């Protein structure tokens, strides 16, 4: 909580208890003492919850990695990484400290970024922080300690008292772990969309070029439009058929349908090629790094499909075994069935099926029907309320600028609505 909010809470308590508030200097001393006491209790509790192994791993984060002579440890002794720091570290030829990498945002939208973020997440998980490390602590408090760590130099960590150093490093790792998971989910959503859009754009461009080579279609369209405008009250048979014959119109419709089918077929082919030759190698690593969950039975087929993909990780088989119960409903769209099911053997082909699973997963995640364990943005929707909401309702209602009394809330809403209606 900021010093201003603490000061406001203290003055409000004085008014509530009918106590004359102290002078400004006294208030500042009281607030400073309260902050120091909170920090002392918070850091002590945090360190007590850490295992010896986790303490060692956290201390290792500020140990400088090997670097050439004349180059600061970690490539750049900077509080927060950016592209310039990465370039300087690369030019120096030295390995940058993981603490520096941990502070950096993901790179461009590509498979290599996804793989790099997975490696980063695995290294954070290896620290072994307990899941309940900050249980009972407001997310804003933990986020504040994370922000504090982002601004610190390695020398600042070394100079800090051990409880403070371990707490600030633990907060950084805990929050960054959730942020890395969120980032991986965002990358998954964007990459699936990217390869789909690219495939559609390429195929549409090819078909449009072929469509323009067919003679006469533009002229036919002009004739139809002219006849329709000149004879708006006339029936179709009398107004349009004399201009363009019925058979010609039937041929145009048949060709358009054929083009639509050809579009879907070519898009599937492009998607398959792009996915199998480049993006597919990232899928097993992503499924190992991120745990998807769902509380909605409707999306059980998608969850079962993800389990199936995990079981076949490392397999060279082109098809799933005949004995496998491969979920198709809510996973494979109707226009993909022919691409997924082999007509001769009736087996499910893995590559197109994996694509369908990724698309279904993307849709379910965006609707919050499937959530991600350990994430923040994409966490279980049931956990959206702050952990301390029940204990600190007054604080949260004040932060939202909302009254606790429902009658006051309704009255204010009615007043504002009526003001809009009446101008």
Written account of the structure:
This protein folds into 5 domains: 1-41, no CATH class; 42-182, no CATH class; 193-278; 292-372, no CATH class; 393-422. Helix 9 packs antiparallel against helix 12 (246-277) and helix 9 packs across helix 16. Helices cover 62% and strands 1% of the residues. With 423 residues, it is mainly alpha-helical. The chain has a two-stranded antiparallel sheet. The chain is extended, with a radius of gyration of 31 Å.
In a nutshell, what does this entry contain?
By secondary structure, the protein is mainly alpha-helical. It is built from 18 helices and 2 strands. Helix 9 packs antiparallel against helix 12.
Describe the SSE topology.
Layout: H1 3-16, H2 24-49, H3 52-60, H4 83-92, H5 98-102, H6 111-125, H7 139-150, H8 154-159, H9 162-213, H10 217-230, H11 236-239, H12 246-277, H13 283-289, E1 292-294, H14 300-311, H15 337-340, H16 350-366, E2 370-372, H17 393-400, H18 406-422
Antiparallel strand pairs: 1-2
Helix content range:
55-70%
Strand proportion: under 5%
- Described by the principal axes of the CA atoms, the overall outline is extended
How many β-strands, per DSSP?
2
Radius of gyration: 31 Å
- Strand order of the biggest β-sheet: 1-2
State the domain count. 5
Sheet with the most strands, sense and barrel status: 2 strands, antiparallel
Poorly predicted residue ranges: 65-78, 80-95
The DSSP helix count reads: 18
């Amino acid at each position: 909580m900021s010093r201003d909010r603490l000061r406001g809470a203290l003055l409000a308590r004085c008014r509530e208890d009918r106590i004359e508030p102290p002078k400004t200097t006294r208030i500042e001393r009281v607030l400073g003492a309260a902050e120091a006491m909170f920090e002392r209790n918070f850091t002590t509790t945090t360190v007590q919850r850490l295992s010896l192994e986790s303490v060692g791993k956290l201390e290792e984060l500020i140990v400088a990695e090997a670097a050439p002579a004349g180059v600061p440890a970690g490539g750049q002794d900077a509080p927060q990484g950016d592209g310039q720091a990465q370039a300087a570290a690369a030019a120096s030829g030295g390995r940058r400290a993981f603490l520096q990498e941990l502070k950096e945002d993901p790179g461009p939208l590509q498979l290599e970024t996804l793989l790099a973020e997975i490696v980063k997440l695995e290294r954070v998980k290896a620290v072994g922080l307990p899941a309940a490390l900050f249980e009972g602590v407001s997310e804003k408090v933990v986020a504040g300690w994370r922000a504090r760590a982002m601004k610190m130099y390695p020398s600042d960590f070394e100079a800090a008292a051990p409880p403070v150093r371990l707490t600030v490093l633990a907060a950084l790792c805990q929050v960054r772990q959730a942020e890395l998971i969120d980032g991986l989910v965002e990358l998954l959503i964007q990459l699936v969309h990217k390869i789909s859009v690219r495939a559609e754009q390429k195929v549409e461009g090819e078909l449009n070029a072929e469509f323009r080579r067919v003679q006469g279609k533009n002229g036919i369209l002009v004739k139809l439009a002219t006849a329709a405008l000149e004879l708006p009250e006339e029936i179709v048979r009398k107004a349009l058929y004399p201009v363009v014959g019925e058979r010609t119109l039937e041929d145009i419709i048949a060709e358009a349908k054929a083009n639509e089918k050809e579009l879907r077929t070519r898009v599937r082919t492009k998607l398959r090629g792009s996915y199998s030759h480049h993006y597919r190698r990232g899928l097993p690593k992503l499924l190992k790094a991120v745990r998807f969950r769902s509380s909605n039975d409707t999306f059980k087929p998608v969850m079962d499909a993800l389990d199936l993909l995990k079981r076949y990780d490392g397999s060279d088989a082109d098809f799933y075994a005949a004995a496998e119960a491969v979920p198709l409903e809510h996973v494979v769209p109707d226009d993909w069935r022919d691409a997924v099911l082999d007509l001769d053997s009736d087996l499910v082909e893995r590559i197109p099926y994996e694509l369908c699973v990724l698309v279904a997963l993307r849709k379910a995640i965006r609707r919050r029907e499937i959530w991600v364990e350990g994430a923040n943005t994409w966490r279980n929707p049931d956990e959206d309320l702050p952990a301390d909401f029940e204990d600190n309702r007054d604080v949260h209602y004040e932060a939202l600028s909302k009254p606790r009394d429902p009658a006051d809330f309704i009255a204010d809403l009615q007043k504002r609505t009526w003001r809009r209606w009446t101008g």
